[in-house]
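SEQUENCE-TO-STRUCTURE ENTRY
===========================
What this section holds: a protein sequence and its matching fold, both as plain text.
Question of interest: how does this chain fold, as expressed in backbone structure tokens?
***
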Amino acid sequence: MLKVENKKVTGEVARATYKANRKRNALIIFAILLTTLLIAVVAAVGISYWKAVSERQIRMEGMDYDIALTEPREEQVNRIRGMKEVACAGVAVKCAILEQYQDKTLDKTRLYWLDKTCWEKQTLPALETWNGSYPRKEEEIMLSTFALKNMGIKEPKIGMELPLTYFTLAEGENETSFEKEFVLCGWYTDYSGDMRGYVSQKFFETTGVEQTDFTQGSLKITLNNPLYSEEDIVAMQKAIRVEDRQIIEADYDTISAFCKTVICLGLLLLMIFASGYLFIYNALYISVSKDIRFYGQLKTVGMTSVQLKKTVWLQSLWNAAAGIPLGILSAAVVSKLVIPGILSAVNPQLPAEDFASVPLWVFFLAAGFAFFTNLVSCRKPVKMAGECSPVEAMRYTAVSSKKRTGRWTAGGTGAMAFQNLFRDKKQAFIIFISFIIALSVFLVVNEVIRENDAKLILNETSSYDIRFKNETTLDEIRKPLLTEEKIERVRKIPGVREVRKVTSTEIVVPYQEAVYGRYYKELYQSRYSPGNYQADMKQYRKHPENSSFTARFISVDENGFHVLNESLGNVLDKKAFEAGEIAVAAKTFTEGDNGIAGKKVRFYLPEGRSPKQERSIRIAAVGDIYSNPAYFAGGYTPDLIVSEPYARNLMGNNLFTELIEVEYEEAFSQETEKQVKAVFAEEKQISSESKLDRYTEMKRSENQIKVLGGSLGLIIAILAILNYLNMMAASVQNRARELATLESIGMTTRQIRRMLRLEGLGYAGISAVISLIAGLPLSYVVFKGTSLYRISFSVPWLSDALMIAAILLVCMTAPVVIYNRTQTDSIVQRLRSGEE
């Protein structure tokens, strides 16, 4: 008996077969190349996208840290810095407030001193751009571009002199104003929208403020592990002996939020890898299934199942050896050149090299995944090739041979298309799962893009486009700068939808245990306690006009009522509110309504028509700082918000407009804003807050996030579409004889095209429905786990609908195009080729 060199025979057959099927192998190599490329690019884009979103969130905060200790003592600072779980800890102290620049009254601009750690390790990472250097000399100052714009400085320069008026925040001192010639040593941009500046240690020391002063000093703590529990914070509090009103400000939901995020990201990655796996598996499965007859012929001449299996394995390894390196090379080019180029184009402020640092493990991950997928995908085809008998192989067709029965058989092209959808269950499953994964990932990514959309964030967190404030509101001599004449001029500007007016004055609320008793007890138990409860309440009873316990009497017009009511959950009765029968209490320092809602509160207005006359009103709802339309604060007693007609009835001509809110027909309209600002351009004691100005600060990263997020969804969609095209090409080719038979018995080419079009529509339509059922709840889970802004969940229907429509269009047109391109022979030739 002759010894057969199995390896040599197998290798020769594999090489001969490989050369004979160059086009088919080129398609498989392309599938492996493309999967490797897309997986690497997905990882690279995903890393850049996550970085962009994280940076956006940090810049919205203005500082990068995990927890903070209020009013830190020096020994506490040293103790915390020595803890093994702490990466760094920096001190920040609010020491002064800027009041005026030249003759312009400023919206209160807070000045901070930061130590070296806080500036270099916690503040700089949160700045998008910065120029100059941190202040060193006493007269030097660094300001945010937002604060500079508020001063009217659009083109700042290093060394420019800034004559400023300020007051310090030292405990026990009155707000005595000081004038100083500051020198601008730098400026920066973040997304916080805060009027903020930084000063030198020398200036800080002149203010008399200490880092232990209440609410002024803070130790910003960055942990080695940002995941912490309430037990960790309690242990730290005990270790540093927290005293008096000190607290460690922390988010105890950080672990649960992290777990939700990891689960969401894990599901996204799983679906992405599943799409890549299906693409390679599909290509290999179709390739081997087409050669089953050839393998049957080899078996008839004596080739064993083991040799056939080795042949298929060798060919798959050669394809992987060609496709994976090409895919990695392409991914390197895309991630190092294309992506940075696009991101640099949409965000010129940031250099392209900031996006080019794709970790090396990304390429190893893509290569390993493609190789692993290639091996796993070969198992089924290899088994199929090895175990199929010669007779079965010669009779094999890729189309299910089950007899079609039932009412659908004679139901026309629609019924035939429906039956064809599920005739090859494996093909149907692969197509459906590919599209479902792709569309679900797109829905989730689209939701993440939406929740980080700067315009959406600003629209939902701000009810106005621009707000003008009278900075003399709390002065002894108030100036009626927001006059009816100027408000009317604003209303008449084209593009202005509405103007909302807010008035305010001081209100005296006598001590009322039944109304505010629970509130004051909770206030004095909190860290914001004004002092000794018993002594203060005794004094309050005797002298309710004491400034610590006065409040603001605030009124809103009809337009303002709708905004207020919506913020409270639409619980107010409009007629009762306008008639002065009900009011809203707005407080800051405690949680819940403290039993205030439903009670009648007594008050009198020192500046009203009858200064000593006591009045009463029922409190219908209790709001917080987010629902309070006023800007300037009173004492510890909750503010009262009433209707403008009721306030005018009590105040007469003394009704003082604190601020106005302007809403445009088209949000972020530059032309409208320019005209609105012009009305108050000459008023030096009116400050403004513009949503457009904040968006200008944030929009540099806007396109960056959209491009990266959109790329993720698009890549998955491309994988799904390629899977579909591959499957449909194989399906049309394998059904060539069947389609020719249908034509031979009278079915027209137009009817066949309609049937194929309906098949594609069925695949896309069913996939879209299942994707919406699965993807929308997943989107909501991701939104709840990753959203950091006070915005509501909503679905970006337009972009979702456009993607679904695009897939429907591809699915409907692709089978017809494939049919037109492949089935060009005569009916007789196609019938004969099917018998071969």
